[in-house]
Amino acid sequence: MDRLQDIEMRIADHGLSFDEWDELQSPRTAETDFDRVVDRAMSRRGFLGGLAVFGGAAALLGTSALTPARAASRLGFDAVSANTLDTITVPDGYRWHAVATWGEPLWSDAPAFDQATRGTGASQERAFGDNNDGMALFSDGTRTVLAVNNEYTNRSIIYGARATGLPENADDVRKGKAAHGISVMEIAETDGTWGIVKDSTYNRRITADTPIEITGPARGHDLLKTEADPSGTTALGTWNNCGNGRTPWGTYLACEENFNGYFSSSDASYTPSAELSRYGVKTEDWGYAWATADERFDISKHPNEPNRAGYVVEIDPLDPTSTPKKRTALGRFKHENAELVVDNSGHVVVYMGDDERGEFLYKFVSEGAYSIGGDNADLLDSGTLYVARFHDDGTGDWLALTPETTGMASQAEISVHTRQAASAVGATTMDRPEWVAANPKKAEIYCCLTNNKNRGVKPNAGGDDTSVNGPNPREKNNYGQIVRWMPENGDHTATGFAWDLFVLAGNPTVHSDAYAGSENVTADNMFNSPDGLAFDSTGLMWIQTDGNYSNEGDFAGMGNNQMLIGDPETGEIKRFLVGPNECEVTGITWSPDRRTVFVGIQHPGEKGNSHFPGGGASVPRSCVIAIRREDGGLIG
Ligand code: FEO
Ligand code: CA
Ligand code: CA
Ligand code: CA
After folding, report:
1. How far is the CA of 503 from the centre of ligand 2 (A)?
2. CA 292, CA 263: separation in Å to the nearest integer?
């Protein structure tokens, strides 16, 4: 009898799960998390062999090791039921209100939002942008400043006053460009209600036209030079800023995601280069029409312009005169967010996902070390960029992207053609990496892999194989999962890690196979397409969804997009909020006193079926909401 058979028999004898047995047999205190996860994964893989095989790869369900039923719950609220109401639903004992809404003026010289016209170029430049996403709060010690990404616009909503539902003239394009970027604004609380402080000296709009300095390895490289900027050092604007990050030195990171959808070609016969094609740049845009009023978005005339987008942008929200910086050392791809950890050694480690089907997960490790109160201004300009390779046995490596490993000519080229560099070293294709979040209580990182209908169906845009693999175990993955990893020896700069899956989302009322989800998914907490992700100060993980809200078929019973809270120790997941119709819930930050959590509601009514938040016949508008407890208690 080999060891595994012996284990299986003893498990059966004692009525224990394999993991309970494993827990009893393996004293954990002397082990690191890395050791424990590797051991567990290796054991389970052997144990599961032939059982949990989803299209060829065994899923290593870390959560099946977890015992939510036995542990005392740390989720002290009544779960919200799935629903399709055109409003926000929060647990009993909690209240919400809107803090900042698309088109709301930041200065008193700007007009109030006009429901009929939905604003002009001039009004939008002085108002909160559209489709808010990632955000973070800053304080100068007295005043509170909120920096918020305004990711994109829904043409049918912002141009709803136009017969075509599209931009029809240059001012419409001006409005569209101004609705993008970042809104920085002071907010204040009066009697439990937060709102914008108009005319604050901190208020600022950064848009698709704001000058941004290009820094890091690609600064000045030929690939970044254009007619308007022959030095390749100053780009105009940032757009499609999705998730965010923040640094301990007080700056905000805005991540450029689907930058490609804004470029087009006036020459329909123009063929974009293979390099541009890898990033999805085509001769037609996604309906924004920016090239009709701003020639730099015409790739047949300015083929290097797309090389100047797709970066992480660092902004000082407490200095409205500062020039934002595109940090090319962090690579160019469809950046989701940037989760920054300062390792014990002082090195800054930034974890980042590239949100496209079959693209990769990255980390940057700074060359210099962070020092409190020191000069950290350019820490994100030099260091090593790595991409993740996951092995099916529960381990993985970070592969450095250098001229030697990639065969590319220079670090500058790697900083611009990062996807190609990652393909060259054999990185693991992922199911659309969205937000990455670090557990503040231990060296452990999580990433939402939102979904991937192409998994096992066709290769990524670089031709890389996308057969099922360890952390992406389901073909045509329509539900998504959350992967987590522990750096070797708890050292974020290490190149080794151990991983498992915190949750496989699914629908146990429709499926009884892998698409039912992992054990911690039930009829009461099911969801699809995890996207936004952040830890609160107590070590609980807030999960936001951007999924299918049809409430039918594979998604029956899931209702509108939602926000849940997960306990990384027990695997328990509970629904905290349901959003209005056709919205995505994305972006989260807390007040310094932890009595308010700010949450983003993006594009309610994106298909025309919401009047949130105004109700009646009003135009649906993205907004930042504040949630507080009725008893004024702590919330995360
Ligand atoms: Fe803007 Fe990948 O979400
Ligand atoms: Ca997202
Ligand atoms: Ca998404
Ligand atoms: Ca969205």
Report:
1. 18
2. 10
